[in-house]
Amino acid sequence: MIGGLLFTFWRLMEIVTLIPTLGMLAYFVDRYQKSNLLTPNDILVLFIVSVLGAAWAILTVLRRKSTRDSAMFVSFIDLCFVGAFIAGVYELRRIANADCTNFAADTRFSVTINNQGIDSDAPSLRLNTNKECAMRKASFAFGIMNCIFFAITSFLLLFMHRTRKDDREVAVKETYRRRSHDSR
Length: 184
Fold this sequence. Notes:
Blueprint: H1 2-34, H2 41-62, H3 64-69, H4 71-91, E1 101-105, E2 110-114, E3 117-121, E4 125-129, H5 131-167
Antiparallel strand pairs: 1-4, 2-3
Helix pairs in contact: 1-2, 1-5, 2-4, 4-5
């Protein structure tokens, strides 16, 4: 019971983190496709893995009973997704050290005294964000999170398979053969 609830919770977490990843990476794929350029491998690998992972997560949540019955197979596929997400994150690794956001400060400060009073112009702060860099970095972070989430669900399924196997009852049916003795 608790294993099924935990499994469903982590699967929903996978779906929640895969959907934004799909959207952000689809933006890049569409942009490169419209420019008639090949999509770089770092984006394409994580995009394909995210599409397949989202489809798998949704399918296994909707078919929980069959997921429970074939827990070893689903656990193996989840471990394959862990490896695939590691490959996707490895391809996108160069974005990890990128600085996508910075503050720009206007250092001008002026005070004007006139007949209406004192007028001052204080320095202003501006936030500059590189949208594409931030989206790649967020996809990188979501990829790492999904590595962990798929590993958790894989181990939960192993636990569910082990406990489910122990809970099975074996019914033994005894049959008696009745012999009739005929008189001569």
